[in-house]
Write a structure and sequence with these properties.
The protein is globular and about 50 Å long. By secondary structure, it is an alpha/beta fold. Helices cover about 50% and strands about 15% of the residues.
Length: about 210
Amino acid sequence: MVRQGPLSLASYFAANAQSFSDRITKLGMIVFAGPLCRILGQKDRNAVSRMGYFSLRDMSEDRIFILGKEYFENILSDAILPGGRQLVERLHREGFEIVLYSEGLGYALDYLPSRLKDISQLYCNALEFSQGLATGKLAEPILGGFAGSAFLLKQARERNCDLAHSAAYTSYEQDILLLNSVGNPCAVNPSETLRREARQMDWPILEY
């Protein structure tokens, strides 16, 4: 739906920490984590999320809620890809219930349904807090990578969804389990690994 990754959100939060020293420290952690995330993210997208959000340790819960709304209004609301919006609208017209999930934080993404009216359910990551301060860890369940697919499939089965008549759209090879589990899989703006898999499995490839 958008091109911004977890480091974009974490960087915005870090750059708007309350004190100058906090901003320098937190942005430095993200700069250090960036190259590692690019390497680890090829195999484990949860590693990207965990490392990016660790920089938010000790930020107050109130501050994170405020910055999440600012991030959506200032950056994310204008970054929704037209192709993604059109896809959601088309699936809604075809009678599908629209469920989105992201490794991003709900503090920013929870406002997305206000711009995409056809969304029925949104699953996102959340931070763990202790005494009103972020611990630097993500709360369970951590979405993204292989765990994200497993979580979605568990939710679908608990709700008695007909997977044979369901569709799944994803960009990452870690979601191959999800794509293999539905009757209508589709690779969207796929990674090279997923592109090769989609061609081998004769799955549609959608790019926008």
